[in-house]
Write a structure and sequence with these properties.
It is a single chain. With about 300 residues, this protein is α/β, with parallel strands linked by helices. Helix 3 packs across helix 4, helix 5 packs parallel to helix 6 and helix 8 (about 220-225) packs across helix 11 (about 290-295). Helix content is about 35%, strand content about 25%. The chain folds into three domains: about 1-75 and about 155-215, 3-Layer(aba) Sandwich (Rossmann fold); about 90-150, no CATH class; about 225-285, Alpha-Beta Plaits (2-Layer Sandwich), CATH 3.30.70. The structure holds adenosine-5'-diphosphate and magnesium ion (MG).
Length: about 300
Amino acid sequence: MNIIEARHLIKRFGPFTAVDDVSFAVAAGEFFALLGPNGAGKTTTIRMIYGFSPLSAGELAIFGLDIGADWRRIRSRLGVCQQENTLDPDLTVAQNLLIYSRYFEMKPAVARGRAEELLEFFALTGRRGAKVMELSGGLAKRLQLARALMAEPELLILDEPTTGLDPQSRHQVWDRLLALKKRGLTVVLTTHYMDEAEHLCDRLVIMDHGRIIAEGRPRELITRHAAESVIEIEGPGEELKGYIREHQVEHDDLGERIIIYAEPRGELERQIRERFCVASCRFRAGNLEDVFLRLTGRGLRE
Ligand SMILES: Nc1ncnc2c1ncn2[C@@H]1O[C@H](COP(=O)(O)OP(=O)(O)O)[C@@H](O)[C@H]1O
Ligand SMILES: [Mg+2]
């Protein structure tokens, strides 16, 4: 049985369709990402999953239970970490965890034990008495994650867990999430960071304008829509352009720069290296950012 089964989800706000016929499934133990630019419909989709936003149409089952009929039973098995800081600023770190446990009717002794474990796991023990107001963005996010895990959820839902964090905090959050993954927790996260999805996720969908435009494992998507190997050439000359045409080389011409999609260590790569890399050439592995830009275009968004 899948943990999430979403079929033809639609969410309308008046005449505007924010989520437009989205279907996907998440299996137990999977790390699944909704990746997409701002406004793609990621938050709206996961708000339907955690029951904060009724569907306009479609079917949604979590743990095999219908989101409409069984919301209460589903809710007690979910952990949610919203994008904005939803901690209580006047309470301490530890109090935020304990207060939250009351919603789940946890026994106080159990809640205290669980809070201690989570403070330890998120390296917050030293800050247990600090007021939330005093925490940096990274610490606050770790506390929010800890809180989402208080009631030992079977599914953790994270909306942009690292947006706005500095690189150290971001990597700390990633490490903790990877540790949770090892324990077999099912996680759905949204992000607009391609590297985050690539680093953390087993599988992802790319959303744009309320629709899913690609789905797969990161490596599959990279080979399908970009390439394992990418060559970027600044100031491409006519000779190179002729070669690209003649050999029908997969590429994007950005004017000042040409991006070539190639097999790693293949003949094309060798030819380019030997014949056309007089000025500036960069050889690198293909990544999800290439996939994303190829699918959604390079133009600026609103
Ligand atoms: N409550 C709402 N009322 C009207 N429009 C909304 C509402 N919530 C989201 N939207 C719109 O739906 C679109 C998708 O938003 P959202 O799901 O927040 O995108 P993302 O999380 O991918 O950035 C956006 O254009 C946003 O303005
Ligand atoms: Mg969002």
